């Protein structure tokens, strides 16, 4: 009997608690509805300044919900994207910035929206040992910023980061090419190294890529191509250790043996360091 009474009392208490929570939630929602848009926006900005990004996003979203066609709503969309970026919610930052652009393609803050998208991808770049899909998205987005807004600070910063991203993508090609080379899959390795030389020629990986081409071509018995790659290496990076290694490799015929007479003729196209 006592247990039944206690159970009933607990049920009543739980019901009252639930009713109280619902009442508090309704009161809070009502308070949001009654607040002027300026006050709501300023409250969101204050949360942002304090570093409470989650609360800031909620308040900025509330501005959009209550006043969807106002200038405050447009500002709030971009501020919400920025708050998402600062809180490392990069996917949310991208989707919010894209939503702003879909509604305001020529808006005053459109350059910043494109920049937020690019930076959100850029911050998600991982090491070369992993898939580089996000790196490619970052490159496309950064290039878009430079193309659309060439004379802005956003474009200048994006240009610097483009070089970093290209170096990252070249590094991935080099990693795969070296893996093929270790497995004696020389044609596959050549394709990867040629990609670096042809598409990422201004990166730090180009000298090694040319040397690896020399290695791969010699392994395939393609001495002419090996010397041609070494010649490019000599012309552009004469003081590089990779050129010295390539010269030594060709001089040894790729195997440590003395070069054949035909190879000696080809060697005359190269000069020691």
Described by the principal axes of the CA atoms, the overall outline is elongated
Query: Percent helix among the residues?
Result: over 70%
Helix and strand sequence: HHHHHHHHHHHHH
**Poorly predicted ranges:** 1-21, 25-32, 255-268
Tally of alpha and pi helices: 13
Description:
Mean pLDDT is 85; it is low at 1-21, 25-32 and 255-268. The longest helix is centred in the first third of the chain and has 33 residues, at 2-34. By secondary structure, the chain is mainly α. Helix content is 77%, strand content 0%. The protein contains 13 helices and no strands.
Topology:
Layout: H1 2-34, H2 37-50, H3 53-66, H4 71-86, H5 90-103, H6 110-122, H7 133-148, H8 153-182, H9 186-199, H10 206-219, H11 223-236, H12 241-251, H13 261-267
What are the key terms here?
273 residues; mainly alpha; disordered N terminus
Concise overview:
By secondary structure, this protein is mainly alpha-helical. The protein contains 13 helices and no strands.
């Amino acid at each position: 009997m006592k247990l039944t009474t206690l159970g009933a009392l607990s049920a009543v208490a739980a019901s009252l608690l639930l009713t109280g929570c619902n009442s508090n939630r309704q009161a809070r929602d009502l308070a949001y509805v009654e607040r002027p848009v300026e006050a709501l926006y300023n409250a969101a900005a204050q949360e942002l300044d304090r570093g409470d990004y989650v609360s800031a996003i909620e308040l900025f979203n509330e501005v959009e919900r209550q006043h969807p066609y106002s200038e405050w709503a447009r500002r709030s969309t971009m501020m919400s994207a920025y708050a998402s970026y600062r809180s490392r919610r990069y996917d949310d930052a991208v989707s919010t910035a894209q939503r702003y652009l879909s509604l305001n393609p020529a808006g005053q803050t459109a350059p910043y929206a494109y920049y937020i998208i690019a930076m959100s991808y850029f911050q998600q770049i991982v090491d070369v040992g992993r898939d580089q899909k996000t790196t490619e998205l970052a490159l496309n987005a950064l290039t878009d910023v430079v193309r659309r807004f060439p004379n802005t600070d956003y474009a200048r910063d994006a240009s610097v980061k483009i070089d970093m991203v290209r170096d990252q993508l070249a590094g991935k090609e080099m990693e795969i090419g070296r893996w093929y080379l270790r497995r004696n899959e020389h044609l596959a390795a050549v394709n990867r190294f040629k990609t670096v030389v042809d598409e990422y020629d201004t990166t730090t990986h180009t000298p090694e890529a040319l040397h690896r081409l020399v290695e791969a071509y010699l392994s395939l018995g393609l001495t002419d191509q090996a010397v041609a790659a070494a010649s490019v290496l000599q012309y552009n990076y004469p003081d590089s250790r990779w050129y010295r290694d390539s010269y030594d490799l060709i001089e040894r015929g790729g195997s440590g043996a003395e070069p054949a007479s035909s190879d000696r003729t080809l060697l005359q196209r190269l000069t020691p360091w």
